[in-house]
């Protein structure tokens, strides 16, 4: 186990650097630039001057090396458009993003696993089918529409909840106010994510419940509830860990559309604005952090899976 | 002990829901294929004096902001959207299954390399990649399917990998290896069918996201060029007209929903066919 | 009909536009609530879709911040809502008559208002102006544009409130350009940042300005608040504070407006007007802006190099239909200059109307006929097929090219359409920029039209094809070259107006572009706010010091 973890970790660092190089190349080779989106009437001579000031006239390799060096020191560079350090910009939006994405993830996991279990216990029944339709509806309606409809119904028509924003302007901080603002965006994200968990849990659990050792446990007379809890669920939930590892970077990068519809001050919009303005330091900085989180997330998922399922620790057949 | 592969396919299609799902998909596919004949109006027929008409007997689904018949555009849009959903998902599933199976079964260096590939692909900036590829390969439908497929294979790969890893020491797999079967055959006949469940679920879920991704990439000038309609594109156009023309969003959205539902029902049916235990029958002990 | 008066008192002034009788092309402003006595106090919550990156204007790479910039900073001159130039920081606009402009048209003298001061109490002096000039011209500071500044030879400050600019060469739009877009910056707070460090100064996100409101707080992604500056040189504003709320999605903004969480919203979309029309206490404003949509032809394209083909396509275009149906009643553009401009020729009114017969006749004269009856005209066996492209992601433009495709098909021209990402369409030639490389036949996009027409030279002058200018269509016309070159140097409006009228006539005859529609800016504001006069040129907050909020009932 330990050697496996160490082996993976040793790979992680060169991998991260390779990813940054690839991302840098793609971002800089793609057409466009910070001045492409500026007023088309800007003169060529002004354009050239600003490019020189921003360091964009250097050869790509030296730009990359310079960026990598500052990155390894923990400095993500300074934005082209705001002049601020990228770390400051990210730090300012991080709490709001984690608040939104974290709550949505936890809620969608809880509800998703719950619904998956219910569906697995009565496969093929009306209850199961109904759940399938409802959860899949949430998946196939695009997030934008879910959000706008949620605002129209709960805010405009019924007036229960505020329409967007993180807190009421001018009001001192209260938990109640915060929860009311969090409710709709979290609900929208949850509706979109629940089917991902519930369908996998259901399928896995159904399969697990037909395993030999489950049948053996039933044969021994163990109660159904214990059978599910101790023999069915762990095996059914392990694959979820795999998928969870893939979700870690999303926690950080946020959900652009939800943040746009609900005017939520998150990292998704920060990244999206950076992309729209071709603010390379910001984009590359966020990509670098996301890459590290991706590698870390997948590594953690693998290690957790190996811990949960001892069979995974065995070496490959020669 | 039976190997899962040996389940009979006759179980497929018995279920009413499955039959409805198949019919629905066939209907959409046919409608898309025959769209020029079936559509009551030409898809590009602009009538500026008829714009934003609510559904009526003349225009069953209403007209859009240029007076074009929405139903005709949905029929033509079926071609693009279904093609993208199927092709992109197929590419994603193919790549993901292959790489995931190899990574899980062979382990070691192969696993490490493929794991690195997964992490790399996850971290790449999709927007810039799309811009770059659009410039180099052309911003057409084929490139679009490739891009979406290449962007979506990772969850499938990780799920298959995990199944393969769990299975590589199972008795029946070792028995197959003992019999001298090569890696490919062991994978294809023994490992993959057991991984069918998660693959199919991921594929069905991925199809809906492929349609959405198609319309999102349309915003970047990628994919279908106007005036070719697509369901996702129609949804994008309808975004600012929720108040004055809600039918512009309802009909394309409903089509996407029905297709996703049907695909999912098919995924479940396929899963049952491949692995009789998944039908959920409680076997008396 | 539109009456035009040339105000001869301002003969020497440049860029001054005329008061049009009746404001015939604009709707009269909606009724505000019964005006009682001017009430002091209240906080206005104003929504805007785009959040600025920086709060001062020298570096701004994006234009999102004009609204906030107006209330924090002061400039020399401002365009009011009738496109008249009015003084802000200066006591009067320099003209030949008042001696502000020397007879050789190379020396400009400005007098600052002595009562102007910064939000921290420091007086605003000519040293600040001279410092800002040095920042703009510094090679490493990264100012967005030095256009109009690099003609300055020397800046003198004979006393604390007088500045004298000496130019290297005559520059017709100097008064309308100088410190009308750029803010005056405080020297005492930024003098350590002159140079490469200027971009990273924290000042840009927590500025000290000289405008009617001072900066209070900025919660990134959420809102920004400014409060009343009592010592403002134009008189203390009535409002206690203004909060700018960033709401990127129009539907969300509508709900917040209905709920009263927002008092007003800047740049609403046309589709959002309908749900707001029924809300009591809100007034909608539609104001023609300085932006217009147009189709540019690549005059070097084999089919389009013939002016008759381009004119034929212009006659085949039904601008009125496009304006009414695609742009919801925006004003159809019939010439390159906006109707409020005095450079706009009356003759341009009647030319190039939608006329299919003239269109087909012109095509025939150019040798294009439909020989095989398939509905497409051919010449020497080749069909007239061109590609019309525009930016992706803007539904109005996509609809416009669909309509144009149908309209041009009616005269036998087959059009294929193509959408490009804006970065690809407008990008530099090295990165594959479509327009700058000339890799297009016809392109639909928009310009912002500055009030002074001197800029026409870089758009239509033959030596100003990219990379030297914005003549994307590679248009070449010798007479027009000399006219626009002269117009950019001559200050006297009496001499300039006929020049640009002739330019307009040439442009109609040659049709390198087809102007389509003037875009309309839609704003919504509570009826409790008095003094609100939307101004797309300068930003709606241009007169925020004069606003006051009637108390809620």
Quick overview of this protein structure:
The complex is a heterotrimer of chains A (318), B (285) and C (553). Chain A has helices at 2-29, 44-53, 60-72, 86-121, 126-140, 143-157, 175-208, 212-219, 224-253, 256-261, 267-276, 280-308. Chain A is an all-alpha fold and 318 residues long.
Main pleated-sheet profile of chain A: none
* CATH domain fold name of the largest domain in chain C: D-Maltodextrin-Binding Protein, domain 2
DSSP strand count of chain C: 20
Report mean pLDDT of chain C, rounded to a whole number.
86
In DSSP terms (H or I, runs of 4 or more residues), the helix count of chain C works out at 15
Name the CATH class of the largest domain in chain C. Alpha Beta
Written description of the protein model:
The complex is a heterotrimer of chains A (318), B (285) and C (553). Chain A has 318 residues and is mostly helical. Chain A is built from twelve helices and no strands. The longest helix of chain A has 36 residues, at 86-121. The longest helix of chain B has 37 residues, at 70-106. Chain B contains ten helices and no strands. Chain B has helices at 16-33, 35-38, 70-106, 108-123, 126-137, 141-167, 171-178, 183-218, 231-238, 247-274. Helix content of chain B is 68%, strand content 0%. Chain B is elongated and about 75 Å long. Chain C is α+β, with helices and mostly antiparallel strands. In chain C, the strands form five sheets. In chain C, strands 1, 7, 8, 9, 10, 11, 12, 15, 16, 17 and 18 form an eleven-stranded mixed sheet that branches. In chain C, strands 4-6-5 form a three-stranded antiparallel sheet, with helices on one face. Chain C has a two-stranded antiparallel sheet with strand order 2-3. In chain C, helix 7 runs antiparallel to helix 9 (356-365) and helix 14 packs antiparallel against helix 15.
Lay out the secondary structure.
The complex is a heterotrimer of chains A (318), B (285) and C (553).
Chain A lengths: L1 H28 L14 H10 L6 H13 L13 H36 L4 H15 L2 H15 L17 H34 L3 H8 L4 H30 L2 H6 L5 H10 L3 H29 L10
Helix pairs in contact in A: 1-12, 4-5, 4-7, 4-9, 5-7, 6-7, 7-9, 8-9, 9-12, 11-12
Chain B lengths: L15 H18 L1 H4 L31 H37 L1 H16 L2 H12 L3 H27 L3 H8 L4 H36 L12 H8 L8 H28 L11
Helix pairs in contact in B: 1-3, 1-10, 3-4, 3-6, 3-8, 6-8, 7-8, 8-9, 8-10, 9-10
Chain C lengths: L42 E6 L17 H7 L4 E3 L5 E3 L19 E5 L14 H12 L14 E8 L2 E6 L6 H4 L9 H4 L22 E7 L3 E6 L12 E6 L3 H10 L4 E5 L4 H5 L4 E16 L9 H10 L2 H8 L4 E2 L23 H10 L12 E2 L2 E2 L1 E7 L3 H15 L4 E7 L1 H5 L7 H4 L4 E7 L7 H5 L17 H10 L5 H18 L2 E14 L2 E2 L17 E2 L4
Parallel strand pairs in C: 1-9, 1-10, 15-16, 15-17
Antiparallel strand pairs in C: 2-3, 4-6, 5-6, 7-8, 8-9, 10-18, 11-17, 11-18, 12-18, 13-14, 19-20
Helix pairs in contact in C: 7-9, 14-15
């Amino acid at each position: 186990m330990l050697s496996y973890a160490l082996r993976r970790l040793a790979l992680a660092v060169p991998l991260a650097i390779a990813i940054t190089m690839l991302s840098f190349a793609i971002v800089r080779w793609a057409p466009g630039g910070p001045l492409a989106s500026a007023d088309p009437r800007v003169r060529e001579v002004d354009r050239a001057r600003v490019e020189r000031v921003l360091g964009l006239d250097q050869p790509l390799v030296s730009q990359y090396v310079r960026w990598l060096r500052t990155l390894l020191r923990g400095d993500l560079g300074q934005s082209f458009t705001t002049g601020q350090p990228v770390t400051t910009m990210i730090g300012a939006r991080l709490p709001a993003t984690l608040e939104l994405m974290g709550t949505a993830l936890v809620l969608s996991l809880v509800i998703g696993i719950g619904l998956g279990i219910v569906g697995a216990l009565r496969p093929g029944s009306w209850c199961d089918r109904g759940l399938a339709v409802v959860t899949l509806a949430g998946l196939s309606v695009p997030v934008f529409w879910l959000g706008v409809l949620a605002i129209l119904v709960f805010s405009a028509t019924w007036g229960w909840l505020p329409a967007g924003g993180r807190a009421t302007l001018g009001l001192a901080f209260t938990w109640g106010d915060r929860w009311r603002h969090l409710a709709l965006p979290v609900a929208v994200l949850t509706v979109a994510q629940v089917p991902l968990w519930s369908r996998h849990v259901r399928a896995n659990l159904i399969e697990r419940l037909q395993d030999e050792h489950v049948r053996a446990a039933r044969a021994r007379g163990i109660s159904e509830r214990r059978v599910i809890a101790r023999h069915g669920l762990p095996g059914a939930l392990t694959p979820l860990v795999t998928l969870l590892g893939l979700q870690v970077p999303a926690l950080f990068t946020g959900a652009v559309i939800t943040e746009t519809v609900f005017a939520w001050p998150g990292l998704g919009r920060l990244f999206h604005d950076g992309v729209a303005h071709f603010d390379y330091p910001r984009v590359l900085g966020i990509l670098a952090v996301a890459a590290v989180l991706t590698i870390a997330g997948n590594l953690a998922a693998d290690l957790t899976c190996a811990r949960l399922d001892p069979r995974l620790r065995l070496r490959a057949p020669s | 002990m039976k190997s899962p592969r040996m389940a009979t396919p006759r179980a497929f299609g018995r279920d009413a829901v499955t039959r409805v799902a198949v019919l629905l998909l066939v209907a959409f596919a046919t409608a898309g294929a025959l769209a020029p004949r079936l559509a009551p109006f030409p898809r590009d027929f602009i009538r500026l004096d008829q714009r934003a008409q609510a559904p009526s007997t003349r225009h069953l689904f209403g007209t859009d902001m240029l007076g074009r018949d929405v139903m005709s555009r949905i029929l033509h849009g079926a071609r693009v959207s279904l093609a993208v959903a199927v092709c992109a998902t197929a590419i994603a599933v193919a790549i993901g299954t292959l790489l995931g199976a190899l990574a899980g079964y062979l382990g070691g260096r192969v696993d490490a390399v493929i794991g690195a590939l997964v992490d790399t692909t996850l971290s790449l900036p999709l927007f810039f990649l799309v811009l770059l590829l659009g410039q180099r390969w052309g911003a057409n439908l084929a490139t679009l399917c490739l891009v979406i497929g290449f962007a979506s294979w990772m969850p499938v790969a990780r799920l298959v990998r995990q199944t393969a890893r769990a299975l590589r020491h199972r008795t029946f797999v070792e028995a197959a290896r003992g019999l001298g079967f090569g890696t490919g055959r062991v994978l294809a006949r023994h490992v993959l069918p057991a991984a069918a469940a998660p693959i199919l679920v991921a594929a069905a879920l991925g199809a809906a996201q492929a349609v959405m991704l198609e319309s999102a990439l349309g915003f970047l000038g990628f994919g279908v060029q106007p005036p070719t309609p697509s369901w996702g594109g129609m949804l994008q156009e309808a975004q600012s007209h929720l108040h004055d023309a809600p039918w512009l969003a309802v009909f394309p959205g409903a089509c996407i929903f029905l297709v996703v539902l049907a695909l999912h029902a098919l995924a479940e049916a396929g899963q049952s066919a491949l692995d009789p235990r998944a039908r959920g029958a409680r076997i008396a002990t | 009909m539109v009456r035009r008066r040339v105000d001869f008192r301002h003969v020497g002034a440049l860029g001054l536009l005329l008061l049009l009788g009746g404001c015939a092309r604009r709707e009269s402003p909606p009724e505000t609530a019964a005006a009682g006595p001017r009430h002091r106090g209240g906080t206005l919550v104003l929504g805007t879709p785009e959040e600025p990156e920086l709060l001062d204007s020298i570096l701004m790479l994006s234009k999102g911040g004009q609204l906030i910039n107006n209330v924090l900073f002061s400039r020399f001159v401002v365009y009011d809502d009738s496109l008249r130039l009015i003084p802000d920081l200066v006591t009067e606009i320099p003209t030949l008559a008042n001696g502000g402009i020397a007879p050789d048209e190379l020396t400009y003298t400005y007098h600052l208002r002595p009562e102007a001061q910064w939000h921290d109490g420091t007086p605003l002096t000519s040293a600040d102006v001279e410092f800002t000039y040095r920042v703009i011209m510094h090679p490493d500071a990264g100012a967005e544009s030095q256009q109009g500044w690099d003609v300055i030879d020397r800046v003198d400050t004979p006393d604390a409130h007088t500045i004298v600019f000496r130019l290297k060469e005559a520059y017709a739009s100097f008064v309308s350009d100088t410190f009308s877009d750029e803010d005056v910056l405080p020297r005492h707070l930024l003098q350590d940042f002159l140079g490469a460090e200027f971009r990273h100064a924290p000042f840009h996100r927590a500025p000290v300005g000289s405008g009617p409101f001072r900066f209070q707080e900025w919660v990134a992604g959420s809102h920004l608040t400014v409060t009343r500056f009592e010592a403002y040189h134009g008189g203390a504003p009535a409002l206690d504070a203004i909060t700018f709320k960033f709401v990127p999605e129009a539907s969300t903004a509508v709900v917040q407006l209905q709920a009263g969480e927002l008092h007003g919203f800047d740049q609403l979309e046309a589709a959002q007007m309908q749900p707001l029309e029924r809300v009591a206490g809100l007034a909608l404003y539609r104001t023609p802006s300085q932006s217009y949509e147009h189709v540019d032809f690549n005059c070097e394209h084999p089919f389009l190099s013939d002016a008759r083909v381009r004119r034929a396509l212009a006659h085949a275009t039904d601008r009125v239909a496009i304006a009414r149906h695609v742009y919801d009643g925006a004003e159809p553009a019939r010439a390159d200059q906006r109707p409020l401009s005095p450079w706009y020729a009356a003759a341009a009114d009647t030319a190039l109307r939608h006329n299919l017969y003239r269109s087909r006749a012109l095509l025939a004269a150019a040798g294009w006929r439909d020989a095989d009856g398939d509905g497409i005209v051919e010449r020497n066996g080749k069909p007239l097929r061109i590609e019309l492209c525009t930016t992706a992601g803007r539904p109005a433009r996509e609809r416009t090219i669909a309509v144009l495709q149908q309209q041009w098909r009616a005269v036998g021209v087959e059009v294929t359409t193509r959408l490009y990402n804006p970065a690809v369409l407008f990008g530099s030639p090295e990165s594959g920029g479509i327009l700058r490389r000339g890799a297009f036949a016809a392109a639909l996009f928009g310009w912002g039209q500055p009030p002074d027409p001197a800029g026409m030279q870089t758009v239509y002058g033959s030596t100003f094809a990219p990379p030297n200018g914005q003549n994307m269509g590679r248009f070449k016309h010798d007479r027009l070259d000399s006219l626009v070159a002269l117009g950019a140097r001559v200050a006297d409006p009496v001499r300039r107006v006929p020049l640009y009228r002739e330019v307009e006539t040439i442009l109609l005859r040659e049709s390198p572009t087809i102007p389509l529609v003037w875009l309309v800016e839609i704003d919504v504001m509570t009826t409790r706010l008095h003094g609100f006069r939307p101004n797309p040129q300068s930003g709606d907050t241009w007169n925020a010091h004069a606003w006051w909020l009637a108390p809620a009932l």
